[in-house]
Write a structure and sequence with these properties.
Oligomer: single chain
Largest sheet: none
Structural class: mainly alpha
Number of strands: 0
Length: 560
């Protein structure tokens, strides 16, 4: 019973650490989420630049999982290539080593836990009474405090179990030489998969070494395993993505597996090298026999390992991508297209999903343009078979866009369950409004298709002037759609100039008024039925409404 209570204390301390890490990460992402997203999207084709970006962002948000899943989301959306994603993932691997340094320095060497309670006296009032921006920084500080409180509990709880049978059994497996290293690599892997946080697993490893429950070489072996285990998050996220997302996750896994294979054989020489360096700055002949220095040695090993692995594999990125492409084949033709999928919104914050949403909205904007061209072709089609094929294509396109509206709304609802910044809340409302306008555009073109079908069924034909008038309206619509999609392609909607879009909407309205008023003079030249005139008027009004909706999208984007 006492063992169970003590074990619950350890798991509770670890849970508090993980929760603190998440609160801290969420706080910084909310405070700087938009900038982080823009930084990720602007990564160049040079892998080294991507590595530096991935390192910086992971070091800031303290979550390699968040950076990796964001990266895979961008690959899935087609915003970056697999080649670009590899540099970011390598950087995330190095960036996550910052956690080990923070924990070893602040938790074991300087014991920052003693100042966490005083720090909370500043953070909590700031969280409760401060403005939104200050609230996010307060959230970051609260998470930081909870992290070290959890670490303090973890350090004090582990020694209680030192004489328990479970820990005695562990000690029996620490003297098997190379076999022990392999075993503890597996322990680190499984531990990371279970807790779903390499930072938490590494912290537990640091605590085990600090309390003397395992030697430093096996702590390093656990870190190697934890490096492999952290890839599971990316693999899970990629399961619901397309083939490019899965290949990106596979490159991450291959990168960490290759690193683990060569480092497990060079672990002894690497530790000897690090110990020699530590000896230069420590009065102790064997610095890693000191508990505090041993934790610093683990942090140094973690950083050195990941930096060396990146340096070795950076030139081999094209071959890693080829290997991933060979291992991950498309499930279907559709699988090879970029598309919106429901990535796990618990990893990262809503501020970091805008890039994928914008990409999918642009894709649907291009689909709307294609539907408009199909509608234009339908009005000018003569052969009944051609008309039938266009009708069928328009119905299929309309269903796709309505499905997209449902999916994007569900996706936004999912990520909006978390607390949102004012900027993110405004952006999500803007996305919903744009998608709803696009769905209405699609409905309008289906209505035009219905009018044309009824016209043809009743053997009613447009006059040459009516057809010419409608084509003039379509020319303006194509110009307006080009402006709309050009605006949608921008990474940032702020500061958009919609003066040209407004002029085009006005010109479409004027054309409608002009063509409606000219119908009387046309009656002297052509003999046509009143039913034909009514259909012509209805189509003209529908096209004018289509122009209104196109302008509304531009207006919504510019409404900052």
């Amino acid at each position: 019973m006492i063992f169970v209570i003590n074990l619950l204390q350890i798991t509770g301390a670890l849970a508090l650490f993980i929760f603190g890490m998440k609160v801290m990460s969420d706080g910084i992402q909310k405070a700087a989420g938009g900038q982080l997203r823009r930084t990720l999207r602007s990564v160049t084709k040079k892998p080294l630049n991507g590595l530096l970006v991935g390192l910086g962002i992971t070091g800031l948000v303290q979550s390699s999982s968040a950076t990796t899943v964001m990266t895979i989301s961008l690959v899935n959306a087609g915003l970056i290539t697999i080649m670009q994603s590899v540099g970011l993932i390598m950087g995330a691997n190095i960036g996550t080593t910052v956690t080990a340094w923070i924990v070893s320095l602040g938790g074991f060497l300087f014991k920052l836990s003693s100042v966490t309670i005083p720090a909370l006296t500043l953070a909590v009032p700031l969280y409760l009474r401060g403005g939104k921006r200050n609230k996010y920084w307060a959230e970051f500080l609260i998470g930081f405090c909870l992290l070290f409180i959890g670490l303090d509990f973890l350090k004090s709880s582990l020694p209680v179990l030192e004489n328990e049978e479970v820990f005695n059994a562990i000690k029996n497996y620490t003297a098997l030489g190379f076999g022990s290293r392999i075993l503890f690599v597996l322990v680190g892997l499984v531990l990371t998969v279970i807790v779903q946080s390499s930072s938490a697993a590494i912290t537990l490893t640091l605590a085990l070494v600090f309390n003397g429950l395992i030697p430093i070489d096996l702590g390093c072996a656990m870190i190697i395993g934890e490096n492999i285990g952290t890839t599971i998050t990316a693999e899970i996220a990629a399961l619901v993505g397309n083939v490019f997302a899965r290949r990106s996750a596979t490159v991450h896994t291959l990168f960490n597996l290759i690193g683990a294979m060569w480092m497990i054989f060079l672990l002894g020489p690497m530790l000897n090298l690090l110990e020699g360096i530590f000896t230069l700055f420590s009065p102790q002949p064997e610095p890693f026999n000191n508990a505090q220095l041993a934790t610093l040695g683990l942090a140094a090993f973690h950083s050195t390992f990941n930096v060396l692995n990146a340096a070795i594999l950076l030139p081999l990125i094209p071959y890693l991508v080829k290997a991933a492409s060979f291992l991950r084949k498309p499930r279907s033709k559709k699988d090879a297209r970029t598309r919106l999928k429901y990535l796990d919104s618990t990893i990262g914050t809503p501020e970091l999903f805008g890039a994928e949403i914008q990409s999918r909205i642009l894709e649907e904007g291009m689909n709307i343009e294609e539907m408009t061209r199909d509608t234009h072709d339908l009005i000018n089609a003569i052969e009944s078979e051609e008309q039938y094929n266009i009708h069928k294509k328009l119905k299929k396109s309309d269903k796709r866009i309505r499905d997209f509206q449902y999916r994007i709304n569900q996706f936004i609802i999912q990520i909006a369950r978390e607390e949102l910044t004012e900027t993110t809340s405004d952006s999500l409302q803007r996305y919903i409004s744009i998608v709803n306008d696009m769905t209405r555009m699609s409905n309008i073109m289906v209505s035009v298709s219905f009018e044309i079908r009824e016209k043809n069924k009743d053997k009613i034909w447009f006059t040459p002037i009516q057809r010419s008038n409608l084509n003039q309206v379509f020319d303006k619509l194509f110009e307006a759609l080009a402006i709309m999609n050009s605006s949608l392609s921008k990474k940032d909607y702020r500061g958009l100039d919609i003066s040209e879009a407004r002029k085009l909407e006005d010109s479409i309205n004027k054309l409608r008024s002009k063509f409606r008023s000219s119908i009387k003079s046309e009656s002297d030249k052509f003999d046509f039925s009143i039913e034909g005139v009514l259909i012509y008027f209805r189509v003209l009004i529908l096209l004018e409404k289509l122009g209104d909706k196109i302008f509304e999208v531009s207006a919504v984007m510019a409404d900052n």
